[in-house]
Amino acid sequence: PTIYVVTPTYARLVQKAELTRLSLTLLHVPRLHWIVVEDSPQPTPLVRDLLAVSGLAYTHLHVPTPKDMKLQEKDPTWLKPRGVEQRNEAMRWLREMAAAAAVEQAVVYFADDDNTYSLKVFEEMRFTQRVSVWPVGLVGGMRYEGPVVENGKVVRFHTGWRPSRPFPIDMAGFAVSLRLVVAHPGARFDRSAQIGFLESSLLQGLVTMKELEPKADMCTKILVWHTRTEKPKIKREEIMQKQGMGSDLNVEV
Ligand code: UGA
Ligand code: MN
């Protein structure tokens, strides 16, 4: 089966660096199709050019997050869910593609542009029947969070926060079969989901805990990390710009 990797992304100083790093990981994975969905009203040249030379099979989509749902510069990062419209747009494209090309033997993975992925995590998810799950490192204020497996079944979740959530797992900790996405045309990420309930908003419409397929040695191995990139400080750039000596803005960073 092909793995469709869905990556929402938005313009910021580190965007090209993030997408470059992720693309280099994905190049090592066979039978992979990268769906990059820009949070923008138009596709941007930066992303278009990066994809064109990436060497990957890809689809380039875009949809802007509505203004009232968009995180503002001064907001704390957890205030609003991120990448929601973009992941839903990718699922729309996938359902349409699956119908047109009669593809169903495939897996969908929501891979944010800033996380760190081992190559192994992709092979773990490749034979997903419905929804496969595994732990995620460096997330939720914990060393890791993940499903707890007993007798081959997920019985609960190891999490430090709101264990009452239906599926307290990070976006990077599950993959869904395309067949299931197609079979549930109404399943989507809920933009008005409470903080931490975004993953649950999709998964609730697709599976029950009993049906989850534990991967990564019964969820005992960490194969993906919820890393976050430090925001670069460009104070000096601003000072230099005021003196008319700022960096050339025609140079893409
Ligand atoms: C955590 C989860 O790991 C995310 O999958 C989840 O979407 C997010 O919480 C949430 O609750 O919304 P976190 O590291 O805090 O993630 O989020 P980001 O990495 O900042 O954003 C997730 C994805 O959305 C990234 O691929 C990012 O490029 C994209 N994004 C972010 C946008 O497309 N637009 C934005 O305005 C912000
Ligand atoms: Mn992130």
TrEMBL record:
Main location: membrane
Signal peptide start-end: none
Locations listed in the record: Endomembrane system; Golgi apparatus membrane
Active site: E199 (proton donor/acceptor)
Gene Ontology molecular functions: galactosylgalactosylxylosylprotein 3-beta-glucuronosyltransferase activity; metal ion binding
EC number(s) from the headed UniProt entry: 2.4.1.135
Topology in membrane: Single-pass type II membrane protein
Enzymatic reactions: 3-O-(beta-D-galactosyl-(1->3)-beta-D-galactosyl-(1->4)-beta-D-xylosyl)-L-seryl-[protein] + UDP-alpha-D-glucuronate = 3-O-(beta-D-GlcA-(1->3)-beta-D-Gal-(1->3)-beta-D-Gal-(1->4)-beta-D-Xyl)-L-seryl-[protein] + UDP + H(+)
Top class in the EC scheme: transferase
Needed co-factor(s): Mn(2+)
Any one biological process term the GO annotation gives: chondroitin sulfate proteoglycan biosynthetic process
Keyword DNA damage found: no
Residues marked Interaction with galactose moiety of substrate glycoprotein (site): E145
Family: Belongs to the glycosyltransferase 43 family.
Protein known as: Galactosylgalactosylxylosylprotein 3-beta-glucuronosyltransferase
Organism: Denticeps clupeoides
Organismal lineage: Eukaryota, Metazoa, Chordata, Craniata, Vertebrata
Gene name as annotated: B3GAT3
Residue window of the full protein shown: 76 to 328 of 328
